[in-house]
Amino acid sequence: MTEGSETARRDALLARRLNLVSSVSALTAEALRLNQKRAGIEMEMLRLELEIGRSGASAQLVRDLHEAEQNAATIIQACAACEDRIVAAEGDVEDVDRRLAATADET
After folding, report:
1. Exposure string (b/e) for 50-63, b if CB count within 10 Å is 16 or more?
2. What are the pLDDT digits (tens) for 23-62?
3. Nearest Cα to 78, choosing from 36, 46, 48, 15?
């Protein structure tokens, strides 16, 4: 391989790595946002449970609690999916790093 093509290959790998790291960063931010949302929903669930304990299980409080539980389940699934995407993107970064290391070894 010529030096120019090796440089072009390495530049392409570096650009790919930059894009992947950017993706990991965005996914991590999304995971944090989802976890904050989940925590807020869990606090609402606790508030509703306390209210039910204090004043009894009115139909509206029970509906609100069930809705909050459903929202929490949805967010938990979204968190898991986001975590899976983070793991995959980090694996891609590791692959690119190995390929970059191989190009450095060739020079």
Report:
1. eeeeeeeeeeeeee
2. 999 999 999 999 999 999 999 999 999 999 999 989 999 9
3. 36
Its pTM stands at 0.83
Predicted pLDDT of residue 1: 54
* Phi, psi for 2 (deg, rounded to 5): -80, 160
- The token duo for 96 is 């690119």
Q: What distance in Å separates the CA atoms of residue 42 and residue 39, rounded to the nearest whole number? A: 5
Q: What is the CB neighbour count within 10 angstroms for residue 68?
A: 20
Q: Find out whether 24 and 41 touch, Cβ atoms under 8 Å.
A: no
